[in-house]
Amino acid sequence: MLEHYMIQGSSYASHIDGLVWVVLLITTFWFLLAEGMFFYLLWRYREQPGKKALYINDDLEHAIKYKWVEIPHRLILICDVAVILGAVSVWSEVKLSMPVTDETVRITAQQWAWTFRHAGADGELDTADDIVTVDDLHVQLGKTYKFELAAKDVLHSFSVPVFRLKQDAIPGRVISGWFKPTQAGEFDVQCAEICGIGHGIMPARLYVETPEAHAEWIAHPTHYLAYKNK
Ligand SMILES: [Cu+2]
Q1: Residues 6+ positions from 155 with CB-CB distance below 8 Å
Q2: Range of the domain at 77
Q3: How far is the CA of 193 from the centre of ligand 1 (A)?
Q4: Would you say the pTM of this structure is higher than 0.90?
Q5: How far is the CA of 164 from the centre of ligand 1 (A)?
Q6: Which residues lie below 8 Å from residue 196, measured CB to CB, with a gap of 6+?
Q7: Helix (H), strand (E), coil (C) string for 136-175
Q8: Distance CA 86, CA 93 (A)
Q9: In CATH, what number is assigned to the domain containing residue 65?
């Protein structure tokens, strides 16, 4: 389902993609320019009868050095600063800030399954109507979720490609983060940290549902239901 990976399914997915595009365009531009110049010079100054090769050391004329080394160097530094500013701004939005959230979902990773504790009808965790599932995460389109990610045994990584979200789960720690789904549908979740022999069979499904469909699921939860009303 490769086309799923093109879907920008969260509020910040397009910001992360934008950053990747900026890096790709900048590096492609400089790569093509540098390689183009390299091959042009190879061709232009190839062996020619009667012409002796010059030995050139670091003692270049200042003007040549400025033109070929310092100008590109400064231009690339400007590109670096642009990438760093973009990266810091996206990192701070996705990882360092916690917006006002509507609901919390608790995610527990273990060898080799994901357990999701959903708030249920009251929107509150740790109450009687929580819905606990294994390998199925149900969220409502447009709601902002806080997640609390834990690992029972070893390192795992909660990866949701359509959200452009990836977060390590570390034993002994509860790591908070957030996401806001913006596309309804059924998507992949995959453990993205080698966590033992069953690592490759540690996927889960993400269901992003319209408010009506989500309310319907809360009323009649299906899919690997672990327990309800407990
Ligand atoms: Cu894992």
Answers
A1: 168, 169, 170, 171, 193, 195
A2: 2-96
A3: 6
A4: no
A5: 18
A6: 111, 112, 154
A7: EEEEECCCCEEEEEEECCCCEEEEEHHHCEEEEECECCCE
A8: 11
A9: 1.10.287.90
The 8-class DSSP code of residue 215 comes to H
Cis bond before residue 112 (omega within 30° of 0): yes
Q: How far is the CA of 61 from the centre of ligand 1 (A)?
A: 58
- Cα–ligand 1 centroid distance for 188 (angstroms): 14
- Look at the chain and report how many structural domains it folds into: 2
Alpha-carbon gap, residue 139 to 137, rounded angstroms: 7
Q: Model confidence over 143-174: pLDDT tens digits?
A: 999 999 999 999 999 999 999 999 999 999 99
CA atoms within 13 A on the CB side of 111: 9
Residues 108 and 189 in one domain: yes
Compute and round to an integer the Cα radius of gyration of the chain: 26
End-of-domain residue from the set 96, 126, 156: 96
Written as one string, the DSSP assignment of 32-56 is HHHHHHHHHHHHHT---TT-PPPP-
Distance CA 36, CA 15 (A): 31
- Token pair 């190839």 in the structure block, residue: 46
Give the integer Cα–Cα distance in Å for 217 and 138: 8
Neighbours of ion ligand 1 (CB under 5 A): 156, 191, 195, 202
Residues 97-115: tens digit of each pLDDT: 999 999 999 999 999 999 9
Pull the structure tokens for residue 184: 């309804």
Q: Tokens 């917006």 correspond to what residue?
A: 99
